Amino acid sequence: MTTAHICIMAAIIVYLGAMLFVGYLCSRNNNDSSDFYLGGRKLGPLVTAMSAEASDMSSWLLMGLPGLAYLTGIADAGWTAIGLAIGTYVNWRIVAKKIRRYTHVAGNSITLPSFFSNRYRDEKKILQSIGAIFIVIFFIPYTASGFAACGKLFASLFGVKYLPAMIISALVIVGYTTLGGFLAASTTDFIQSIIMSIALVIVFVFGISTAGGIDAVADHARSLPGYLTMFTTYDPTTGTEQAYPLLNIISMLAWGLGYFGMPHILLRFMAIEDEEKLTLSRRVATTWVVISLAVAVLIGVVGLGMTAAGEFDLLEGSASETIIVRIADLLSKHGVIAAILAGLILAGILASTMSTADSQLLAASSAVSSDLLGSILKDKETKKESMVADKITLLLIAVVAMFIARDPNSSVFTIVSFAWAGFGAVFGPVVLLALFWRRSNWQGALAGMICGGSMVFIWKYGISKLGGAWGIYELLPAFIVAIAANIIVSLLTKAPSKEITDEFDKVNQK
After folding, report:
1. Is the model's pTM score more than 0.90?
2. How far is CA 185 from the centre of its chain?
């Protein structure tokens, strides 16, 4: 093992140890399930903002997005970034404050499914149970993909076997999340967002310097037909310009709809200590997202400039997603300090994966422990026993996720965009109508969830196979169907009770 590898490994080990220490510190603040799953609603505005975005920006921010821009130019990556930036802002602007207020008023709900049941006075907890089932369906494989990404990173860096690398990574994530719960996940996500930011800046500056400067990067990008426009793309196999149809633009922008239904993001809104501080959180979060997405796209362009400068061979196919790893490896060869910085960059990639995996793990375990089994497990338990049940549930779900992630070539990676569509369609319409439509009722909410979730599967594995206009991203049609089902069924069934409408009016008067 070279000196560079030793420095990189040391930096990553320090980082992982720090995450476990944060988990230990946060564990002392957990007294009951509300603390474990929602941090006792004590998050500050900066932690709320940055942890929400770190848990959102998975490894695709430092791997997928730069890789996409590297291969085909800025159109695909750029429209996706625009859709996500718009979705982020609108979600913070119209949903954050209201869901913080409403979840507190509606039975002090600590999970998204429990809010639905409390909001509509669903005494049989049908909405809570169905919502929890959908969370488990989409989140466990999603968590597994995060475990697998960490394992592949370590395996490729240090030449170790994938399985033990994946298990060690997963155990660290499980360790600090089990110790400190939501507060640990949010605090570590805040730290991880800082590391991700530093990694992006280092890679961007070093990449431009190595490629010969901004002019050299721009000149090479301009020489590739369709590479630097938002309405055409570059085909690396033929070296020609390809049209970028309106359908593709709509599909990429549709990613922004997913934010309205992401449990791990909405939980941050619910957990802030004071709803008035959400304004500051919104500004910080939106600024960070816009800058991070823009830099990530530009890193792909810079990476291609480095290839043209002869720094490394052309990366093809999925190998393009390792562009930042290649740049970090190149940096590590410039001395000990540079190797430590390279370790920080790789820790940033690790952070982007871990910050999503811990939030998904917590959301999935809360769905089982609190929403599905809450009435069975906790009616006769003390707060301490309830906490033990929560942690055991989290551990069991982590074991299942690790089992799914055992194969590095598993198709689990393809479920990331599918899971995003699933959450967006299942929960997004219900959240929006629950917060903004007085006439909505539990029957409509149930119909919306089931129709939205079903349409994601139907469109992805059936209708989209027809091609053409039918090939649009499944989130958009599923979202529309879910909204329509919710509204139609609500209007065809009994109006909500006075108690429900009075509570709605109370929330909206503030």
Report:
1. no
2. 13
